[in-house]
Amino acid sequence: MAPIPTQPTPRLIIYHQTHHTTTDIPVSLLPLLTQPQPRPTHIILAAIHLNTPSPTLSSTPPLHLNNHPPSHPRFHPLWTEVALLRAAGISILGMLGGAARGTFALLDGSDASFETHYRPLRDFLRTHRLDGIDLDIEELMSLASVVRLIDRLRADFGPGFLITLAPVAMALVLDGRIENYAEFSYEALEVMRGRDIAWYNTQFYCGWGDMSSTAHYEMIIARGFPVEKIVVGVVTNPGNGAGWVPPEVLVPVLGGLRSRWKGFGGVMGWEYFNGLPGGGERPWEWVGWMGGVLGLGRGSVQEVGRIVALERRIDVVDEGVEEADVPSGFEYLEEGIS
User: Fold this and answer.
1) What pLDDT, in 10s, does the model give residues 235-271?
2) Which residues face 44 on adjacent strands?
3) Which of 52, 142, 144, 236 could form a disulfide linkage to 269, CB 3.0–4.6 angstroms apart?
4) In which band, very low, low, confident or very high, does the pLDDT at 12 lie, cut at 50, 70 and 90?
5) Least reliable range by pLDDT among 2-6, 40-44, 235-239, 245-249
6) Is 58 left (phi over 0), alpha (psi -120 to 50) or beta?
7) pLDDT, tens digit, for every residue of 49-77?
8) What does 76-140 look like in DSSP terms, one character per residue?
9) What residues contact 224, with CB distance under 8 A and at least 6 apart?
10) Is residue 36 classed exposed, middle or buried when 0-12, 13-18 and 19+ CB atoms within 10 A define those classes?
11) d(CA 315, CA 309)
């Protein structure tokens, strides 16, 4: 199989997990289109979780987006905005897994068990026409099962579908040898399936990496990972996780990386809803600021008008799945958990 075409760099990626305020008001992504500022190249919706049917909850759906099935009415504004963002040329991915463990264990079993749990994921990706998937594997999973998952995604969605992974920086520096975190080698995965992996959303925060200097990034590159495939991940607000780097430190670090490494892969931020400097009132400002740091352009007034007109014509279809209780043992808070 030929390698997947390389995405233009630098990328500007923002995760969107906290979809509602504490008063249950949807957090809109549309200012990323309407504000006169640089736009993200990719938005990653978090977090998708797979479930095993519960013996006591017969209506438990096999897949949740955070704490609810994706068809829940609370997500109708989100799916409308996703259509608009895609129409404007922004790629939308879904993040599978994350800090709430269990999803990848369900994909790490027999072929029959894999099929049972993979199919709802495939159907979800098709239903919402997502452009790709981000695999955030923060639990033990075998290399063979990761390869099986990537192969199946590629077979089902074709060469244009984006497959990314979200390792912590130390998983690349130490080649996956992190107790209770990963039991496979990212170097081996890159050798075996690098042609199918678009890039790595690398987490340089929460004690797993540091972006107050270029040291950890350069350690990763020294291990042989392609420069264009390492996206620097940072938290957008100190409240989103340990390791926030203030702008006066981060900007020269990123400038140094861009100057030294041709094809620098870009920056991703965790997460959208409270990104500084605007915070919860103007979360889109982090994207605009970082876009300026990366030298990205801005959308035109004419395109904003086209998007507003398109919004009036979009009709989101309710899949008709009722809300279900979360199975016991599944404790994943939507607001601000990575």
Assistant:
1) 999 999 999 999 999 999 999 999 999 999 999 999 9
2) 15, 93
3) 236
4) very high
5) 2-6
6) alpha
7) 999 866 555 567 899 999 999 999 999 99
8) HHHHHHHHHHHHTT-EEEEEEE-SSTTHHHHTSS-HHHHHHHHHHHHHHHHHTT-SEEEEE--S-
9) 187, 190
10) exposed
11) 13
Structure tokens at 294: 């990366």
pLDDT greater than 70 at residue 151: yes
Q: Is the separation of the CB atoms in 90 and 41 below 8 Å?
A: yes
Residues 232 and 269: beta-carbon distance below 8 Å = no
Query: CA dist 235 to 69, 134, 272, Å?
Result: 27, 17, 10
Q: Please state whether 151 falls in left (phi above 0), alpha (psi between -120 and 50) or beta.
A: alpha
CA 244 to chain CA mean position, Å: 18
- Round to whole Å and give the CA distance between 33 and 311: 12
Q: What is the DSSP string of 220-275?
A: HHHTT--GGGEEEEEESSGGG-S----HHHHHHHHHHHHHHSTT--EEEEE-STT-
Q: Determine what percent of the chain is predicted with pLDDT higher than 90.
A: 78
H/E segment holding residue 188: helix 186-193
Label residue 129 exposed, middle or buried (CB < 10 Å: 0-12, 13-18, 19+). exposed
* Tens digit of each residue's pLDDT (9 = 90 or more) over 154-177: 999 999 999 999 999 999 998 766
